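User: Teach me something about this protein's shape.
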Amino acid sequence: MNFRSLDCMPTSSTLLRCLVFATLAAVAVGEAFGRIPEENFRVTRLEQSVRFADDATTITETLLEREALTPSGAQAIGKYSQFVNRELENLEVLEAYTLKPDGTRIPMPPAGMLTQRGITSQANGGLSWPKSEVQFFNFKEVQPGDRTVVHLRRRQHTPALPGWSSHFEILPSSVDFALFRMRIEAPSALQLQVIVHDMAVTPSERDGLQTWTATASTRAMAPSADTSLPEPPQPRVLISTFSSHAQLAQAYATQAIPKARITPAVQALASQITQDHTGIVERSRAIHQWVRKHIQYGAMYLGVGGWVPRDVEEILRTRDGDCKDYTLLMQTLLAAVGIEAVPALVHSGHAFTLPELPVAAGFNHVMLYLPALQLFVDPTSVDIPFGALPWTASDKPAAVALAEGARIIRTPSFKPEDNRQATSTALQVNAAGAAQTVTRITTRGQTAIRMHDYLSRIPAGMEVYVVQGLLQQQGTPGTGRIRYAALQHERLTQDLTAEASIPHLLNNQQGDLLAMAPVVPLPFSILEQMEDHTEPSRAVDTLCVPISLRDDFELELDPAFRLGNLPDNVRETHPDGIVFEAQYTWSAPTFRGRRELTLSHQRHTCSPADYASRRPVMNRIVQHLRRELLVQRYEDP
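Assistant: First, the predicted structure itself:
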């Protein structure tokens, strides 16, 4: 049940993109509930029965009934699909029909149920599930007021990891649930772990059988405009045969580590890679670089391949793999030269805490931990050098399978000096109001990754059109180009120069307002990096990423112009690691400004109380950053 796979994409310059396939609960959430506005349909019934056996196999029955409220809702509930891994489970369709308002049932004909055997995706490096299927349900001629019903039985005959089965059911806030009911059964000897939030639950135990019944009824809530933030807590059920995440990490290691076999070919390769390197750091770095250079991201999931890597020999033969395969190969090569490394499970999304129980949704990525160096290494991350982590894997609880026993170790958060950007803009304006400008941006650490991503999406030869398009978008037509050196992935550095000529920057006889920011609106200004503190309050933790920003601005005016205002110097501080300072000078004909912001929160998230405390000073900083210069033309005598 819920066989989410550890199949993370290689880290791009933005976020670690992970494709997660799930079974019934997750598919129901993603496909049945969350893709259209909540007013278009509602869930009238979601009833589940989950029965665990002594060997951790399961039988799950689900009845899902949805009612269309609008024509678009009718279209939405007319389709449904289920992912099935045939080497681990079987899916049986008990019923599928349309229920009319007068009570008439229209059974789905056999032609309405289609099965796609074998799944492939060319996106994100190429993925393949040759032993898996998708069962599609197509209800015909569904009208507003109709209900569609599917009744399924899923038999899990092989756990994803020995002794481990889990289930995670969540009622998303985007849709009404008139009735949710789940019954859970398990032998008392299994010591099944069950946690229920924001639902009524009735536990019982009799004759060696434990049962839980959870019920709920919910109303939809308007979604937050900020999709980067975690959602507020929602009604949910967590079930696991394991009691701790360390236990899950140990089970993963039990399946993965035996595959790290040091064959003569592996030994020869490891010796060749490290022959010119001495010391544990240099040899580890050499192997890390070799794996990233010679293994291409791509994956084929066979059987329990969603959680267990392939053999090292197969990875070397095909020269491809996913995060599990990258990790296993690097672990084996390190072992061949006497360096211990162990797998570490982590979540690479916006989750900075683990769920209360080890359910499959808790982890979606695996990397390595080198105990001798007390260092996490992510060989899948194409933009991150040895010794660093992408921000999506930073400040995260990782389940590490150490030799002396698995435990949770938090990955390091990065400091502002690991995430720096400096911008310098020079702007010259002639008597006609035309301007020449040059902006130089230097990025170091995590900010360089963001610039790598931006620059990698610019086609060769299009540098001139990028500047022209950006100027046109903000209503200041002009010409120019951007220049930059080859992307510096291994050094986590990147510099950029933007040049532009603007024929009519100042053309208002009453005066023009100029932002103290680069004239070419590249997405790297200090305002672009600011956290959003517009909401009066937050109900959940928000992102608070450490960063160091510096912005220098120089404006040289022709004597035909004068400066109508001079901003006040400002200094803002907050005990939670916020320091902002702005200084300005005017010595005709040149205005100079320097603004520096350092955010050094200890963690990558802020609690609702942190947010409330930081909000006033952060909003004052934003208001100051938005101040503009008034440039006026001298009147003729």
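Now, about its shape. Residues 213 and 226 are 35 Å apart (CA to CA). The two ends are 84 Å apart (CA to CA). If you'd like, I can walk through any region in more detail.
User: That's plenty for now, thanks!
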